[in-house]
Amino acid sequence: MYLLSGEFEFVAIVKGKTMQQVAHFVASKLACVEGVTGTTTFFVLKQYKNNGVVLIEDEDGKNDRLVVTP
Amino acid sequence: MLSDRAKIIKPSGIRKFFDLASQMEGVISLGVGEPDFTTPWRIREAAIYSIEKGRTFYTANRGLIELRREICQYYKDRFHVSYDPEKECIVTVGGSEGIDIAIRAIINPGDEMIVLDPGYVAYTPGVELSEGIPVAITLRQEDEFKLTPELLKAAITPKTKAILLNYPCNPTGGFMTRDDYAKIVPILKESGIIVISDEIYGELSYEEEFCSIASFEEIKDQCIIINGFSKAFAMTGWRLGYVLSNPILSKAMTKIHQYIIMSAPSPAQYGALEGLKYCQEDVLKMRDSYMTRRNFVVKAFNDMGLETFKPQGAFYVFPCIKSTGLTSDEFCEKLLEDQKVACVPGTAFGPAGEGFIRVSYAYSIEELKVATEKIKIFVEKYRK
């Protein structure tokens, strides 16, 4: 959880197995915390990059294997 | 300056060829013994997370208990063999360490150990480093490089302490089905010799189902199973394997392991734990991809007149090149000079590899198409 500048006060990153699970967490745990006046939820649909690592499904082909190995 | 042991072991034939190939530019290699896939992201992320959380300490000598539990559960579910995670499992630095500690734990100077020829490059030196005597069984192409009861019987002497098996096989792609094993199990049982079974390619089995030799209850106690994450989970660089055996052998191997290694790297162990729990689907996807490539490569070599049987496992084919009139070494050196394609001479895996080359198909179909086209041109030029 982070404190932000700009339009929103805080961002919390929530991981769940399904959208339903995340929605349930937001509704039953987050929204009812005293002082929380509203929430906006953004679901991650697909991850393309993580910490500079490109995450594409078909990334075989180019790699740094040696030429000959046992 | 050097010990006799260091002098006696020969440099790997692979190394020599690596030096040749790596000096040239633009080489298309079919010489690699590792997957072309990157480790599934989930495994990478779990290892990163473990570092972020500061899980950077030694683990138990035998490895994280959670990982050992998963390994034993996995062997039970997948291959129908039960081991106790507390007393019968050691997490090692790759399958290679597993082979080393297994041999060291059982071989006395002068003991004979049966190795299969052609076979993986590390087995014979491993026996020699323990001052054991490697006794090679020459496998035959007409048997698809399987170990037959006749060959096994002929090799066992009163001095035989153990045999080292590796099916699916690197370099031949040879495979032992349950029926094949059933023929040799009575001989192993009667002789009482220890069976070290390197099952690192077990997950990469195709039409036939993989059979772990330890699933024969009557010899389970004689078996030391070596496996790991390198091939199935595309984790070669992580160096993580494991050894399963009865508690007496396991205790002896743990003693050696604790002095030479202490414990396998902890981030790799956390990654592997995630892999066993959640990445079986990735394993199957990669296996299916290898199978498609195998079909392509086997056809390509047979079409160009180099007899190649269809292997049931691993990611190698072992084409017979005798029809070209060249030796294995000549074939590979000339192919490299002529077409800039690197394969490994069969002789790098033992004298019985003469007349064959090892071709890895851990490459994309596009790469395999280009490489086999070039080999075809080469073969047409040299065919008698």
Give a summary of the structure in a few sentences:
The complex is a heterodimer of chains A (70) and B (384). In chain A, 17% of the residues lie in helices and 11% in strands. With 70 residues, chain A is of the alpha+beta class.
Arrangement of strands in the largest sheet of chain B: 2-8-7-6-5-3-4
Q: What is the tally of beta strands of chain B?
A: 12
Helix content of chain B: 40-55%
Q: Give the name of the CATH superfamily of the largest domain in chain B.
A: Type I PLP-dependent aspartate aminotransferase-like (Major domain)
The percentage of residues in β strands of chain A lies in: 5-15%
Largest sheet of chain A: 2 strands, antiparallel
Q: Greatest contact pair? A: A-B, 14 and 28 residues
Work out the strand percent of chain B: 5-15%
Structural class of the helix and strand makeup of chain A? alpha+beta
**From N to C, what is the helix and strand string of chain A?**
EEHEE
Examine the secondary-structure arrangement and name the CATH architecture of the largest domain in chain B.
3-Layer(aba) Sandwich
What top-tier CATH class of the largest domain in chain B fits best? Alpha Beta
